[in-house]
Design goal:
The chain is of the alpha+beta class. It folds into 2 domains: 83 residues; 101 residues, Immunoglobulin-like (Sandwich). The protein is built from 6 helices and 8 strands. The strands form 2 sheets. A 4-stranded antiparallel sheet has the order 1-2-3-6, with helices on one face. A 4-stranded antiparallel sheet has the order 5-4-7-8, with no helix packed on it. The protein is globular and about 60 Å long. It starts with a helix and ends with a strand.
């Protein structure tokens, strides 16, 4: 596909994600050797996709193995299986019946114990699966914006020196936010993103520390993006002085 020089700047995201065909890749590579701006954006996008790939794969909570092993210690084990005694021995038949009753009782006790443990483990697994699903959705959304031919980028710096990048696609009507250098907030606080539309700041998602997130809401009419520190769970309106207020990419 033939591209005019001005259009090549919009292929940065697709180039990083290997979404170009061979001819486009060769053309953009020649352009990249001469364009310092695109080289800088390629480096930033590669760092972003590396963080996203790491975020899409989540390990179970570290305490899960310890709690599981602790719970196993309290589970009653089944009795060993013994070879049946000769059918002619009357005492043997009585012992077998007695062992059967005890075995059933032990099996029921173990089933109840393991049932509770399995239910607890199932909840843990479901939570981990939900976190992975959300991370994958975020990865898909962010990758789509980065690969969009009309992707545009803007950069900013928070009041405490963290670096921020916003990439937006008008065609997809989506935008993503990346932060590097954010300080870790207190356990009861979180960073919240805002889109400024008609002079009003509207919630656009949460980011708990460095990383990349797809913005919620409609960025089409947004003129600026804000970042504040809010109570955990977020707020309907900003409650603190903005750490960042930057223009949206144009």
């Amino acid at each position: 596909m033939n591209q005019h020089a001005p259009d090549l700047h919009g292929l940065v995201g697709a180039y990083v994600l290997d979404a170009l065909d061979p001819d486009e890749t060769e053309t953009f590579a020649r352009h990249l050797a001469q364009c310092e701006t695109c080289r800088g954006e390629v480096a930033e996008f590669r760092a972003t996709t590396a963080r996203l790939a790491s975020a899409a794969s989540r390990n179970p909570p570290p305490a899960m193995r310890r709690r599981t092993l602790d719970a196993v210690d309290g589970v009653r084990q089944l009795p060993p299986r013994l070879a049946p005694a000769p059918a002619s021995a009357a005492p043997g038949r009585w012992l077998r019946r007695r062992a059967l009753h005890l075995g059933l009782a032990a099996s029921l006790a173990a089933a109840v114990s393991f049932g509770g443990l399995a239910a607890w483990q199932s909840q843990e697994v479901q939570q981990a699966q939900e976190q992975t699903r959300q991370a994958q959705q975020n990865l898909d959304a962010v990758s789509g914006v980065l690969a969009a031919p009309d992707a545009r980028t803007a950069h900013g710096t928070t009041t405490d020196g963290a670096l921020a990048t916003v990439v937006a696609s008008a065609h997809q009507n989506r935008a993503v936010f990346t932060a590097t250098g954010l300080s870790v907030p207190a356990p009861d606080r979180t960073y919240q993103l805002w889109l400024q539309q008609d002079g009003t700041m509207r919630p656009a998602g949460l980011i708990h520390q460095d990383g990349t997130v797809a913005l919620t809401g409609d960025p089409a009419d947004a003129t600026a993006l804000g970042l504040t520190l809010e109570p955990a769970g977020g707020s309907p309106q900003p409650t603190t002085t903005p750490l960042l207020l930057m223009n949206m990419p144009t």
